[in-house]
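User: Structure please.
Assistant: Input sequence and predicted structure:
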Amino acid sequence: MKIAVGLSGGVDSSVAALLLKEAGHDVFGLFMQNWHDTTGTLHGDCEWEEDRFVAELVARKIGIPFYFVDLSKIYREKVVDYMFAEYAKGRTPNPDVMCNREIKFDAFLDCALKMGAEMVATGHYCRKETVSGANGGQVYRILAGSDPNKDQSYFLCQLSQEQLSKALFPIGHLLKPEVRKIAAEADLPSADKKDSQGICFVGKIDLPTFLQQKIQSRPGDVVEVFLPYYENCPAYKEREEIYGRLKADESLIKNLDDNSLNILSSPLVYDREAIVWHKPSRKQRKAERESGLAPAPVYAKTIGEHQGVQFYTIGQRKGLNIGGHKDSIFIIATDTETNTIYVGEGDCHPGLLRPALFIDNSEIHWIRRDLEMKNGETRRYKVRIRYRQPLQDAILVKRDNGLYIIFEQQQRGITPGQFAVWYDGDEMLGSGPILR
């Protein structure tokens, strides 16, 4: 079989090519350049030049043809422009997911097929299986990689059956140390090369500097929200009351009305004027002290300044450079209209935790279309909302407007724009970008 390997210069794709070559396939390496600009990159160099050089050395060592393709134009349109657009809306995108869907298994795949390849292989740590569907046709399954520390199935959560029909993952059954050992024994030039970090094909970046290519800085306030706010917040108390009833009796989920589902899955909205209104003035405090009454609670205060809400994300704890706290402070909400960032102290701050999320109907993607949920149906699956997060127990509720995911345990930092991905055992079934 003629197979194109996406040869990146890293050890994983190198071993993938080696294993396919040793298995007797007609293999060629294809290096894709997707990025030229170094603005905002921490190294400030064109790392792709070194990667291409190493990839070509690997191809020579293995004894396979080596080719080069420049996909930078479509990468900017499909991945980078998507990033800028999402950040501008105050959402947090996942460019690696989009890169796999739009570039590696679309534009790159098309290029490889035109060069005569029958399949495309990558160095992803995941597994693929083929089973018979109900109608007798083939159904392709994506399974988690055998190495729990390197499983990369999450990044492939938007692939279709058509894309999977042409995809191979030769190292998905291996552990990372085994891959390194194979590379070393074969004396591959990439054997000791460090794993790439940062955004797919761009590398590690200084996010504000990178985004300032299209998004202007706009200083605004950082407002810390204190615990008394939640003790007196009707929306928070209503959400906790509904979630508490579900925790006591899970069967109630099937009969939840849309309003209750929306309450569970909606983030709290912080009305800055209302918070300030609840904060007592110095005159009020003096009167309280003189009267002997218990002081009115302080709900929030401004503790610093940021450079623009688009440069920050829910759950983030680094980058604000604000001290004076015993525990770390986390971003719990951003408001693009008032250009305000809300933070809370501690990783169990109530503003950081949410019991559910929502994916719009138009954005739900089923890898296994034969298992697609019908309106009114509920199912229990394992879910993750970010790469490397341990899988979480959750119940999926399908309604006309979309998919609600209700977690067994409240989740920290549910972030609009990121992908929620659901699994049945080792198999990844579907995904969708979080709307709220």
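Residues 95-114 form the longest helix (20 residues).
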